[in-house]
Specification:
Elements (H helix, E strand, L loop, with lengths): L1 E5 L11 E5 L2 H6 L3 E4 L3 H10 L4 E7 L1 H4 L3 H8 L3 E2 L4 E15 L5 E7 L2 E5 L5 E5 L7 E7 L8 E2 L8 H9 L1
């Protein structure tokens, strides 16, 4: 895992966009973003048990796997949004980026690769994209507390009144 301030320069979202200003993992923790390096599935299972994750599935995001819908899907994932539940991803292969909003509404870019596990709290504004390397490929395990649910709520002013967003803001 590597985290840094997003450079906000135009260009392909899948490029690094590294401003050269690193972000300390402690800052991510203050935002409610939790990171674990899990070299084995046993480590993932321990976190799943501790946090009451009952369900999981796998997703592959790549041009080869998704075909003609790949570009549209990656653009959709990159729309700023939040979820009403935690978003948990364990990277099984490949690389990608999660961008999260910092305390002053600026973007923090988090590069994830194989064996990285990230937990985004409910209510945090974020977005996702594959990277420009490795054939724009990532394979991830998604973990859920209940039935699989990954409905994105795209950011609009009225969303600030959403209970999950209000709870997030009150804690972080």
């Amino acid at each position: 895992m590597k985290s840094y301030w997003f450079d906000n320069k135009s260009g392909d979202q899948r490029e690094d966009h590294d401003s050269g200003r690193p972000v300390d993992p402690g800052y991510l923790s203050k935002l409610g973003v939790l990171y674990h390096h899990c070299p084995s599935i046993d480590a993932v299972n321990a976190i799943a048990t501790e946090r009451s994750y009952k369900n999981r599935d796998e997703i592959i995001v790549s041009p080869e796997k998704m075909g003609s819908v790949y570009e549209m899907k990656v653009r959709t994932f990159f729309n700023e949004h939040m979820h009403e539940d935690e978003e948990i991803r364990y990277i099984l292969d490949g690389e990608g980026f999660f961008d999260v909003r910092g305390a002053e509404d600026e973007w923090v870019r988090i590069r994830l690769e194989k064996a990285d596990l990230i937990i985004l709290p409910a209510g945090i504004y974020h977005r996702f994209t594959t990277d420009s390397k490795n054939q724009q490929y990532i394979k991830a395990m998604r973990l859920f507390k209940d039935e699989p649910k990954w409905t994105p709520l795209n950011r609009v002013p009225a969303l600030d009144n959403n209970p999950a967003r209000k709870e997030y803001v009150s804690k972080h």
